[in-house]
Design a protein that fits this description.
12 strands; elongated; three-stranded mixed beta sheet; Rossmann fold; alpha/beta
Length: 260
């Protein structure tokens, strides 16, 4: 009798598990995707990311390959990482980490005989990106980039140095609360290093190579303490010397022309 009861209980339990399995399977096939939610979008729009996902409303929720959706989204150069999850009963959630441009690049592509200017943008890691045409951007322009680059490349040489200067300027702003980068309109590459051009007042800043944190502190102090004085005008500022800022003033004739 005891064996019969054990067998009966086992049979009932097994039948219950089988029934739950069948019900679960049927339940999954009744879940139809109704909406996709996107978080983390700054450069791309939510609609653009949904389009990259390649999933239509009405698809069976558990038939959607989350890995495939993620891979399609991450093919876009602006997407650093995407996380895709199901949210029962009818939704997909997509959380993206985008590559945010920190500068624009004017690059000379091709040979000296057939050279063309091409515009790109670049993120803080030095990854070359397209120009975000659908977004209003206020970024410094990196010029005189005489190397062939393409979307997806990583910055090298003096271009990499320019990205490091920008990153150091961002770090300095976090330390002091003063954004010296807002005063920089252009970063020009040269064999001797970097040359900056400021906005208002406008002058050339010779930076050279490396030691950017110190040089940016000098520039920040120079802009706040010296350029605010009435009648200030100079031709260039040289930051390459430790402990001092070398200033080349405009001649009296040039200063009169500036004041006109």
């Amino acid at each position: 009798m005891k064996l019969d009861r054990v067998y009966l209980n086992f049979t009932i339990a097994l039948s219950a598990v089988a029934a739950l399995y069948l019900i679960s399977g049927n339940w999954k096939h009744q879940l139809i995707l109704d909406r996709i939610f996107v978080k983390g979008d700054q450069i791309l729009t939510g609609d653009e990311i949904k389009s990259l996902a390649g999933v239509d409303s009405g698809a069976l929720l558990f038939k959607i390959s989350l890995a495939s959706v993620r891979d399609r989204i991450e093919k876009n150069p602006y997407i650093k990482r995407a996380v895709v999850v199901r949210e029962l009963p009818y939704y997909l959630k997509i959380n993206v980490k985008e590559r945010i441009p920190v500068a624009l690049i004017a690059a000379i592509q091709g040979t000296h005989d057939t050279s063309d200017a091409a515009m790109f943008s670049v993120d803080k890691e030095g990854i070359i990106l397209p120009v975000p045409l659908k977004r209003k951007v206020n970024l410094p322009l990196i010029t005189n980039v005489n190397q062939t680059i393409a979307v997806g490349d990583t910055a090298k040489g003096m271009l990499k140095e320019a990205i490091q200067l920008i990153n150091d300027a961002v770090d300095l702003a976090g330390e002091t609360g003063i954004n010296v980068l807002a005063n920089i309109s252009e970063i020009r590459l040269s064999n001797d290093g970097l040359i900056l051009y400021t906005t208002a007042p406008s002058f050339e800043v010779i930076v050279g190579k490396g030691d950017f944190h110190r040089k940016l502190v000098y520039l920040q102090n120079f802009i706040s303490q010296v350029t605010s004085k009435s009648g200030f005008a100079c031709r260039y500022v040289d930051l390459r010397f430790d402990g001092q800022v070398v200033v080349r003033e405009l001649s009296k004739k040039s200063l009169a022309e500036v004041r006109k």
